[in-house]
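Loading example: each entry is read as two labelled lines plus one structure line.
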Amino acid sequence: MAKREVGEINAGSMADIAFLLLIFFLVTTTMEVDAGIGRQLPLKIDYVGPPPPPINKRNVLEILANSKDELLVEGKPTQVDELYDIVMDFYTVNKNRPDVDKNMPNYQQVTIPKCETEIAALQKLVEQYPDNKQYASELEKWKEKLKLCQSFPTNSYSEIHKSAVIQLKNQAGTTYGLYMEVQNILKQVVNELRVEACEQMDYPDYFELREDREEDQLYISNLRILVPERIIESKIDR
Amino acid sequence: MSKFKKGGKKSIPGVNTSALPDIIFMLLFFFMVATTMKEVDLKVDITKPVADQALPIENKDQVDFIYIGYPIDAEEGTEPRIQLDDRLATDATQVGDWKESKGREGVSPLDIVTSLKVDKEVGMRIVSDVKEELRDIDALKINYSADQTK
């Protein structure tokens, strides 16, 4: 039989096919990486039960971003780049010695007996008002605090005053850009303090902790107790 | 005349293009690896704010996005609007129902993070309304989308 020559396949249109695919991917995809600041919104509560004790003014840091995009901290006009130091002071100025700054919250010592009395009191309230989700979540918090106490050799630790909060107020015309600058600074302070706490307690790197990993959950809940991120945002009036 | 010019007319050989597909495929694979699929066509204009504390969202499938910005289409008006999936919502009250319909297999919609992609020029009222809606249905995990660097 005569040897038949196999003809070469014409690959000239291969480039066209590849171009087509390339253009398809160029059009349907994006390069950007999604990043953001994570937050937990506060629970919606229909308050039932005894009225809460009045909050001392020094424990509240009021940050108002008004419609003209001006920042007022405790009523005083403030520049955005001054805010970092103020928030840092709020967390740390009275940490080692009380009343260094009388307008900022003091620290409190948390001990095992204190945790136990709080838990007992809250358990009664939870039984009395089972609908109030706030009591239930506070009870959980104190149980975690008790565990944290027990993990220290001194059986106690100090934490920022339990009613210390940052109150973030906006107005209808406040731009989202300014709001995010404020949020960014609050996050920066908390992150730095938590990184510090991680080093003191011999925890793994804070930014490597993942909430969905079981072995990290205790670290995260402890860090949330030691450096709490309590932000109240009030609704914008219509 | 010339020493090197021999003979008459000589045709130039065609450029060998057989390596062209390989080059294009290489480009193709680069783009396939380096990019991600667009989730939706944006109907609002969004310039995200910058926040150096922003952390990358790792599992994009487990996040719902709400877009808020000024509409690109002039017929939709000049007020900031909310985009849910592929359509513009008339107002914030639709956010609750939309979010509740976004459950995934085995995951309650309330456990899924809601990422707010908001233009930095938008006023806080509309953002506040959306957050109130999410609070009403107990979808408390949110994420403020931002660029990490300028």
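Chain B is about 25% helix and 20% strand.
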